[in-house]
Design goal:
Layout: E1 4-7, H1 11-24, H2 36-42, E2 54-63, E3 66-76, H3 77-83, E4 87-95, H4 99-115, E5 120-123, E6 135-138, H5 154-161, E7 165-176, H6 183-196, E8 199-201, H7 206-210, H8 213-223, H9 235-245, E9 254-258, E10 264-272, H10 275-281, H11 289-298, E11 302-310, H12 312-315, H13 319-333, E12 338-341, E13 344-345, H14 349-353, E14 359-372
Parallel strand pairs: 4-5, 11-12
Antiparallel strand pairs: 1-2, 2-3, 3-4, 5-14, 6-14, 7-12, 7-13, 7-14, 8-9, 9-10, 10-11
Helix pairs in contact: 6-13, 10-11
């Protein structure tokens, strides 16, 4: 039977786009469903400020009268300007394991990207490096963090069959915490603190965190500037991201570091793991989803390490290690046994080396592919 590709336009189309993944991963014990309301907002220019500097279209694939696949395409103008290149992105690919469906979806995205005078395609990539990024290529028997991805194993095989080649990999780690922070880590942290005059700021309320958000995004923009698929967040994007992540934060697991003069020079943001709670919520806050999420936020046994950022001039002075030590002490004090990291570029050897003092495994890998048109 032929595959019919339909551009999404109506609210019903957008809902079908979001709902498809819930059908494709039904009864999969590893997939972590997103909240449907948040996914819908990402498709809407009136909610997602990235549409101010991105062009995007989304499509559904139908076969035998059923929706069997989806894909989006993005022209990220800020990223292209930064890198001085003409690349489009494919995003949010989901499909049954069917060659014709995968081909039709990818070719549709490529055709639209080509019509925009782009020279190549890479992905999966989203509207930012804090949006959907990469396809899972290792770790199909692992539950991801809420800020990461899970995909069927056949996805990346279809991409490779269609001529896509590896561009970038992200590694993810699982850390098993000891009962106490190792003495060596404590000693090094104390030396770093005294030598550089660093102060660590701890938080009790989200309101206290909000007082530092502007400075955190200033560090984010500078510290992440050289990393793959990043761009400078403006105030609207910063607020959009803040509104998304602030509700899930527990202030105990956010740390700010000040330099000798009292200026903010780094941050580390972690959150209680919501992966299993999101599985129970099944994409909805109501009527009972919020109960599962609130329980996970207030009484976690696992945590997700979301973001670490330090002004470059302080990175070599031990600031990241100091913040991590302080954060791990908070984990241990509050009964957290395991930590999941989000993706780290495999070339980011300094960040990867930060786990050497802890019991850890590298258990998941995501990949961005690239193809010239």
């Amino acid at each position: 039977m032929p595959v019919n590709i339909k551009e999404i336009k109506s609210n019903a189309d957008k809902k079908a786009f979001v709902d498809l993944q819930f059908k494709l991963y039904k009864n999969n014990p590893y997939w972590v469903p997103p909240l449907k309301a948040g996914e819908l907002k990402m498709l809407m220019p009136e909610h997602n400020p990235a549409f101010e500097f991105c062009d995007a279209k989304f499509w559904l694939a139908e076969k035998n009268g059923k929706i069997v696949g989806r894909i989006g395409a993005i022209i990220h103008n800020l990223s292209n300007q930064k890198k001085n290149e003409q690349m489009g992105r494919f995003t949010r690919f989901e499909s049954i394991d069917d060659k014709d469906v995968a081909d039709a979806l990818i070719h549709t995205a490529e055709a639209w990207i080509r019509s925009k005078n782009m020279l190549g395609v890479h992905g999966p990539l989203g509207f930012s490096n804090l949006d959907h990024q990469g396809v899972l290529v290792e770790g199909f028997d692992q539950i991801p963090s809420m800020a990461s991805e899970y995909h069927h194993e056949y996805y990346h095989h279809h991409f490779e069959r269609l001529g896509y080649q590896k561009e970038e990999d992200w590694l993810e780690f699982r850390i098993t915490l000891p009962d106490v922070v190792p003495d060596k880590v404590k000693r090094v942290s104390e030396i770093v603190k005294q030598r550089n005059g660093f102060q660590v700021v701890n938080f009790k309320t989200k309101q206290e965190i909000e007082a530092y958000t502007d400075k955190v995004f200033a560090i984010f923009n500078q510290a992440f500037d050289g990393l793959f698929s990043t761009f400078q967040f403006n105030d609207k994007m910063a607020k959009f991201i803040l509104d998304k992540f602030m509700p899930i934060l527990n202030p105990k697991y956010v740390k700010i570091i000040l330099n000798r003069e009292g200026d903010v020079c780094g941050f580390i943001i972690s959150a209680p793991s919501l992966s299993k709670a999101l599985q129970k919520a099944k994409g909805k806050l109501f009527p009972f989803g919020f109960i599962h999420l609130q329980k996970a936020i207030n009484h976690p046994v696992e945590a997700d390490l979301l973001l670490t950022g330090v002004f470059p001039e302080y990175a070599s002075l031990g600031a990241p290690a100091l913040m991590m030590s302080e954060l791990y002490q908070a984990y241990i004090d509050n009964g957290i046994k395991w930590v999941e990291t989000t993706g780290m570029q495999e070339s980011n050897h300094v960040a990867i080396q930060s786990w050497k003092s802890w019991d850890h495994i590298q258990h998941k890998r995501k990949r961005c592919y690239r193809k010239m048109l």
